[in-house]
């Protein structure tokens, strides 16, 4: 089974009219004079093209990044890095995605952007998820969910809940997975997240050996993906349906769906979808006893896998995480050191004042003693004069 991850998470949503979002935003971009507005529009355009045309999404994202750097707007800069990181992840460029997503995280943390920070934690969780580090992914998803619950951020709440359900699905903790996924299904208002959730629930029922139930959810996802022209979900759902038909012995149906998935995957720029579709065909041909074609698609899937991920990329992701944690700790240590130095200066000042007061009191005591002795001597002299 090929687990489907909800890769994209954003800290803003566009609200547009009946006209297509792209056209309306492009019109707004032509008339926009304020650089902050331009940056915001470019980020939204990048988001729109994220799944359908990732290269175009990167082009708009890079324009937004350059403009945000020029005007020094950290909020927009964090958004641009986040979007570019997601686009790179969607294309299978995990090393680049890691660098960009951690830059977004550092900026959002520094400006206390809670909504943006929760999105960054979610997306870094995705990065660990696709590399198979499930415990680390779960840690970051829960960080994201904790912030969302705390600030009552509802727009993307279901996305993170779906991702947590996805981790439990991969860990084969089916009841926990269904708990989170069904909660997400109730909460979600986003079509993309609804698609991911439906597919994930279908996968849970495959693991529970309830294949008729799984087909029900996969078919719902396929219909919705087709209606919304979401090829990425169509490719994955077709592969899932092929696997189920293969398990129940409907080999002709299985091959038909697997071939549809691979044909559609070849038109995409995503190494990830090509890999899963090729692997699905390998499985189908192996079940049919066609080992020549099974080997052919196994070889293809390995080629796509090699271009998708390597040990060097995993190392870079870990290094970026360590760098972020180190920089954060160094900043905290600087604050603690500054606070300690301030307290020490206050203590030194207080000690000096105490010494000064002590010295003054001692001087006054000595002065009083000298005065008293002088008075005594004067009295003695006066008595002697009187006796004479």
Protein topology:
Layout: H1 21-31, H2 35-48, H3 54-71, H4 74-90, H5 94-110, H6 114-130, H7 134-151, H8 157-170, H9 174-187, H10 191-207, H11 211-227, H12 231-247, H13 251-266, H14 271-288, H15 291-308, H16 311-387
Helix pairs in contact: 1-2, 2-3, 2-4, 3-4, 4-5, 4-6, 5-6, 5-16, 6-7, 7-8, 8-9, 8-10, 9-10, 10-11, 10-12, 11-12, 12-13, 12-14, 13-14, 14-15
Overview of the structural elements:
The protein has 388 residues and is mainly α. 82% of the residues lie in helices and 0% in strands. The protein contains 16 helices and no strands. Helix 5 packs antiparallel against helix 6, helix 9 runs antiparallel to helix 10 and helix 12 runs parallel beside helix 14. It is elongated, with a radius of gyration of 33 Å. The chain starts with 20 loop residues before the first helix and ends with a helix. About 2% of the residues have low confidence.
């Amino acid at each position: 089974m090929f687990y489907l991850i909800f890769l994209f998470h954003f800290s803003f949503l566009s609200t547009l009219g009946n006209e297509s979002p792209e056209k309306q935003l492009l019109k707004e971009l032509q008339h926009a004079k304020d650089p902050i507005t331009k940056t915001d529009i470019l980020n939204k355009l990048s988001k729109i093209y994220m799944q359908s045309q990732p290269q175009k999404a990167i082009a708009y994202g890079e324009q937004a990044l350059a403009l945000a750097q020029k005007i020094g707007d950290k909020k927009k800069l964090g958004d641009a890095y986040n979007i570019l990181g997601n686009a790179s992840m969607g294309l299978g460029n995990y090393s680049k995605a890691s660098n960009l997503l951690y830059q977004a995280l550092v900026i959002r943390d520094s400006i206390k952007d809670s909504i943006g920070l929760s999105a960054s934690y979610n997306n870094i969780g995705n990065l660990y998820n696709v590399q198979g580090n499930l415990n680390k992914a779960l840690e970051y998803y829960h960080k994201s969910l904790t912030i969302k619950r705390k600030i009552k951020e509802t727009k993307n709440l279901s996305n993170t809940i779906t991702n947590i359900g996805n981790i439990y699905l991969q860990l084969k903790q089916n009841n926990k997975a269904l708990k989170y996924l069904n909660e997400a299904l109730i909460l979600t208002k986003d079509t993309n997240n609804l698609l991911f959730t439906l597919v994930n629930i279908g996968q849970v029922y495959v693991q529970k050996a309830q294949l008729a139930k799984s087909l029900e959810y996969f078919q719902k996802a396929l219909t919705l993906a087709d209606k919304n022209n979401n090829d990425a979900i169509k490719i994955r759902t077709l592969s899932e349906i092929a696997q189920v038909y293969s398990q129940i012995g409907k080999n002709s149906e299985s091959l038909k769906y697997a071939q549809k998935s691979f044909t559609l995957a070849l038109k995409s720029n995503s190494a990830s979808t090509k890999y899963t579709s090729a692997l699905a065909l390998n499985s189908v041909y192996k079940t049919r006893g066609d080992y020549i074609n099974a080997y052919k698609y196994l070889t293809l899937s390995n080629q796509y896998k090699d271009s998708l991920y390597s040990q060097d990329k995993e190392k870079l992701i870990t290094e970026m995480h360590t760098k972020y944690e180190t920089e954060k700790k160094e900043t905290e240590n600087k604050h603690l050191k500054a606070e300690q130095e301030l307290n020490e200066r206050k203590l030194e000042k207080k000690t000096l004042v105490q010494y000064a007061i002590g010295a003054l009191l001692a001087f006054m005591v000595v002065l009083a003693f000298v005065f008293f002795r002088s008075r005594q001597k004067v009295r003695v002299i006066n008595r002697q004069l009187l006796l004479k």
